[in-house]
Amino acid sequence: MQTGNIKEEVQDLLKEIPEDATWDDLMYRIYVRQAIEAGIKDSDAGRTIDVKEVRARFGLEK
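Structure (tokenized):
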């Protein structure tokens, strides 16, 4: 997901948020972006668990 340097990524993020955004709105977007990038990195490294195994671990229905 990260395509350029961090300054460019921040500038793109700032262009996307509304004018009336709060600090909390900005922090949330940064958090979500960071979480998505971490998930993609884990997936690329093969650190995933099949959904069937997750359901079994937590006793969830199929």
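Helices lie at 6-16, 23-44, 51-58. The chain has a mean pLDDT of 92.
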